[in-house]
Design a protein that fits this description.
Elements: H1 13-30, H2 32-35, H3 39-54, H4 65-79, H5 84-95, H6 111-128, H7 130-133, H8 137-152, H9 163-177, H10 182-194
Helix pairs in contact: 1-3, 1-5, 3-4, 4-5, 6-8, 6-10, 8-9, 9-10
Length: 195
């Protein structure tokens, strides 16, 4: 592919959502038993989905977070197709994609509310315990998703004005992407305590 990403056709947001739903139907039709074991079947699906999304230069985590997460999972699966939990999460994320998108549609919290949100989920993390969260994908995703998604939708959180809260967001995304990363869970709790 010569001369960069911009030669790849850029979809509209609506087209990208339709594309994801189309491939989600294909994934369901093939079934996860087949897709987690047969590499040749996987490549036909995950490559098509991951590559097309990867080449959309406008999918930005700040503006299009749900679609950005679909892309992240699609790329991860393309690299590790035997991980059934990631396939299941990918389908769930595609099902939850908003038809129309704007970060501004998401309720904006005050700084105080954002801090309370973080403290609440820090308590949940401690209640569940890191031994469970680093080994049980379902529990971890339940916690990390609830923590990170509302934070990611806050248009006002940036590294200049709110460096500590911004760092909390970064670590929340890290554990959401890799729940086995115990050090990042610990760092996340440490940062929330400082808020």
């Amino acid at each position: 592919m010569n001369n960069g990403e911009n030669q790849y056709p850029q979809m509209t947001y609506k087209q990208a959502v339709e594309y994801c739903k189309y491939w989600a139907d294909k994934i369901r039709y093939k079934g996860l038993d087949l897709l987690t074991t047969d590499y040749s079947e996987v490549i036909g699906i995950s490559d098509q989905l991951a590559y097309a999304l990867y080449m959309q230069t406008w999918i930005d985590p700040q503006k299009y977070y749900p679609l950005y997460r679909v892309r992240t999972y699609a790329i991860n699966i393309d690299n590790n197709y035997t991980d059934r939990a990631s396939w299941e999460k990918l389908l769930e994320l595609i099902d939850d994609l908003p038809e129309k998108y704007g970060k501004n549609n998401h309720p904006q919290m005050t700084y105080k509310q954002a801090v309370e949100h973080c403290k609440y989920w820090a308590d949940q993390i401690r209640a569940d315990g890191l031994d469970l969260l680093t080994t049980d994908y379902g529990t971890a995703i339940g916690v990390s998703d609830q923590l990170v998604y509302p934070l990611e939708m806050q248009t006002w959180i940036n590294s200049q004005e709110y460096p500590l809260l911004y760092k909390v967001c970064v670590y929340a995304v890290t554990v959401d992407n890799d729940h086995t990363d115990r050090e990042s869970w610990e760092k996340l709790l440490e940062l929330i305590d400082k808020l």
